[in-house]
Structure formats: C-alpha cells, structure tokens
Amino acid sequence: MNTLLANLIVDSDYFVALREVTTYNETVAEVMKRCTHAEPWAAGTARSPSTFFCLLFKCFTIRLTMNQMKGPFAGSPGERAGRISSEAHPASLLSS
Question: What's the pTM value of the predicted model, to 2 decimals?
C-alpha cells in the first residue's frame, strides 16, 4: 500500500468512524455488510479510499490472527485480497 493511500485512509471520515468497531466479529460484520468489491479507491474517485481498504487497514490495527483473516471471508470479494494481505505487517504497508 502506498503512503498516499495509507494517509488518505487514516484521514477518511469512514475510518475515523470505525473507532467504534473494536473486535474481530464487529469488523467481519462490517466487511460483510458494506463490501461488494476489493479495490483500493472508491468507485468514481481517484482520491477517496474504498470501504474495503479502510476495513482492511482496520484489521491491521486490531491485529487479527492468520486464522481470523482466513475464516469469514470465504466466498466474498475480499477473500483473495484478505489472503494476499494477511502476511503483511502494518509497518510494511506504510513503507511502500
């Protein structure tokens, strides 16, 4: 994840609102409720992070385990993105 995207995620209103989401189950429920695709940018914009990427970043902030990352996303648009990013470390996301 490039620095611009990471900074836009942290500054986005949606990510700020995610402060209330603090557990694994709440995060999974939010992904299942709101995410229909896994792209870095919101549809129709070039400077707004997508809901999925905000939630993915949220997963790193609550430190989900590998098993937690694999489980609930089966069959969802985030399945492949979740598997690909599950080995990433938050520090590595900001250094790209």
Answer: 0.70
Give the whole-angstrom CA distance, residue 93 versus residue 54: 13
CA 36 – CA 94 distance, rounded (Å): 25
Q: What is the CA 91 to chain-centroid distance, rounded?
A: 15
Q: Residue with structure tokens 């620095």?
A: 3
Query: 68 Cβ partners below 8 Å, 6+ apart?
Result: 24
pLDDT digit string (tens) for the chain, length 96 residues: 688 999 999 999 999 999 999 988 898 888 888 888 888 888 887 789 999 999 989 988 888 787 876 765 555 555 545 544 544 444 444 444
